[in-house]
Amino acid sequence: MTLKSKKGWKSVVPLRLKTKSSANFCLLPRVKSDRFGPGETPVCLNVYDLTPMNNYVYWAGFGIFHSGVEVHGVEYAFGAHDYPTSGVFEVEPRQCPGFKFRKSIFIGTTKLDPPQVREFIEHQAAAYNGDSYHLIVKNCNHFCKDICYKLTGKKIPKWVNRLAKLGSAFNCMLPEALKIAAVEDEPNGPEYVSEKRSHPLKDAYLLGS
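^ DeSI-like protein At4g17486 isoform X2, sequence as received from the core. Prediction below:
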């Protein structure tokens, strides 16, 4: 997925950590439920369709998906751009522009409060530059797998990123263009998601700060 200045997208610019709180993720999520203990917040994986073809192959455990991690009312995801700065951005949960929302999957819970989660994400964002995005080896689903595991100690479903795993196994057979390409939302294609609020990209996202 290539990041563009688009309504609904807000970058996450890595900052220096002022405390050690983000390293203390135990990590064991925004669903209001009595089943969560005091101080526990649900962490959910929000999955989107990148192509209508998913409707035909999803039930066989295949598909091309975008995903984001939802925690404390914010969804964090990873996308591509041409600059050596973070490709991590935030959107309103289940409202990522350009993609059709499919489902939300409860992964686990975290005891980090909102400021600690934000600090943790900013720290992790430093490892996910936009120009390092790779469809097969470092895509949005790899980011979500990493974040979910560090926050909850649990893994995301394998089917979410199965296509990339298969592509990695047969990488030598893939065209060079596909190996390095990011998944783009078609500018003239259908706008699947209705936006509820706007978060334009900050200049610091593209130029660094």
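The longest strand covers residues 100-110.
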